[in-house]
Amino acid sequence: MINIKTDSRKVKPGDIFVALRGIVGDGHAFISKAIENGASKIIAEEGEYSVPYEIVPNSRDYLNNYLKENYNKYLDEMTIIGITGTNGKSTAAYLIYDALNKLEKKCCYIGTVGYFTDKKVFDMPNTTPEVTEIYDMLINAYDEGYRCAVIEASSEGLLHKRLQNVPFSYAIFTNLTQDHLNIHGTMENYARCKQMLFNMIRPAGKAIINYDDPNKEIFMLPYNTNITYGFSGGDYRATDYQMSILGTSFTFISDGVKQNIKVPLIGKYNIYNVLVTIIVLYELGFTYYSIAEVLTHISSPAGRMDMIEYKNSRIIVDYAHTPDAVENVITTVKEVCDGKIYTVFGCTGDRDRTKRPIMMRKVTSTCDYTIVTCDDVHNEDPNQIVSDMILGAANDNYTVELDRKKAIIMGINMLNAGDVLLILGKGHEEVMIVKDNKRIPYNDKKTVLEYLESKKVIRIEKIDD
Asked: Which residues contact 394 (CB under 8 A, 6 or more apart)?
């Protein structure tokens, strides 16, 4: 475990505490708490303290240099894979993690769904945690014999230098669609933040880029070794895909090699995630035969097209919370659904308001019926969120039920044989965030299973973490 901390609550006797100035807080306000918890030294930009201290021009720069000088000798021995993009980060990262471990190459995962070694170790509040936590997890994994790591790199994490000096062997770009404009302001700023990952590749490392995305040139930097993938072109291509509710098959082509691939995942968008996995596995020395074999057994992370059978219909829980992700999920389900498609979803509070009517239009124009409900409202009035959403309604095939549990139950009771209920937006998440950052225990899949059990539709033996 590393001996330098930026969170006073995590300081243990002997640790160095670095006071960072952030967007919404200032670590200098917590120095007394760090000292109380046993900090042996304080790094700050101002002040005098009762324990040894050092005043520096920029505490963030001090922190990054300290981590690099003291711990990169271990990280340099690891293959570290970074993945950025609006959609697909979690699934692609988790597929790589899952496949490598099934191929007996120990890999840890750090991202939206938590920190995993051989299993989930703990949840995380952010897709990309603070740099000290990243280093802590990587060093712990190294000590346990892990020599591969896959990390989701969010635009916000890159913007705030949470991955500074991490020596990436591979940087992967999935796609770029509208999201986080409340933070970045414009799509160009958003793209430039994600581009930062591609300036963090170690010598001899490689960039893996979605050829089909119109923003690909931003990530194809001339000084990197660039590998592309896609349907319309690229070094690694997919063609002839076929899909059922149980899985997808397609033909993979690269350098004259053709390989049939079958995966227990559905959706054309998931083929992109599988292509990324194939490239990484091949780059790490696995044969196409062994890759094809392991891909038949891979699984996606919790809350990504998570299916529950209900009589002769299906309920699907998915994390989709951007216009593009919502469209991808609905398009996929329409390809395999013979009945009606019902959707339960909401939009997050205190976030980009411009995408709310866009998402509502996509859902109401492509699904048979929609139940508008709450997502994480944070400090925003849920009625304001709904008002923004319904401005984009394509027609009147929707109702509003702000209680998410009641909305889900309403959706379940609409189902007939062959129908599908989509529950979108929260996926794996275990809490509902409301006013003053209060976190109420809540999970979409558990809500579904508990209701079905109460109706004696199914018997629950285990609820996935």
From this structure: 360, 361, 364, 365
Q: What is the pLDDT of residue 462?
A: 40
Strands 4-5 and 16-18: parallel
DSSP-derived pairing of the beta strands 41-44 and 114-116:
unpaired
H-assigned helices in 200-322: 216-219, 268-283, 288-295
pLDDT of residue 23: 60
Q: How many other C-beta atoms can be found within 10 angstroms of the C-beta atom of residue 359?
A: 26
The position carrying tokens 């980009």 is 352
Asked if 375 and 425 touch (Cβ cutoff 8 Å), the reply is yes
Amino acid at 22: G
CA distance 422 to 362: 14
pLDDT at 457: 56
For every residue of 9-56, DSSP letters joined together read GG--TT-EEE--B-SS-BGGGGHHHHHHTT-SEEEESS---SS-EEE-
* Whole-Å CA distances, 297 to 98, 99, 104, 209: 9, 8, 14, 25
Q: How many residues does the chain have?
A: 465
Residue 25: CB atoms within 10 A of its CB come to: 10
Give the amino acid at 41. K
Q: Which amino acid belongs to residue 233?
A: G
pTM: 0.85
Rg (CA), the chain: 23
C-alpha count within 13 angstroms, C-beta hemisphere, residue 255? 5
Residues 442-465 as b or e (16 or more Cβ within 10 Å = b): bbbbebbbebbeeeeeeeeeeeee
Q: How far apart (Å, rounded) are the C-alpha atoms in residues 88 and 177?
A: 11
Residue matched to tokens 């697909």: 88
Sheet containing strand 4-5, strands side by side: 4-5, 16-18, 41-44, 53-55
What pLDDT does 155 receive? 84
User: What pLDDT does 221 receive?
Assistant: 95
What is the rounded CA–CA span in Å between residue 175 and residue 179? 11
SS3 content of the chain, % helix, strand, coil (to 5): 35, 25, 40
Residue 463, pLDDT score: 43
Judged by DSSP in three states, 227 sits in strand
Assigned token pair, 22: 């952030």
Please give the average pLDDT of every successive group of 10 residues along the chain, which has 465 residues: 90 95 83 97 96 96 94 96 90 96 97 90 76 93 97 88 92 81 71 92 95 94 96 96 90 93 92 97 96 95 90 93 90 91 96 93 97 95 96 96 97 96 94 92 96 72 42
Helix ranges restricted to H, 323-434: 323-336, 355-366, 382-390, 404-414
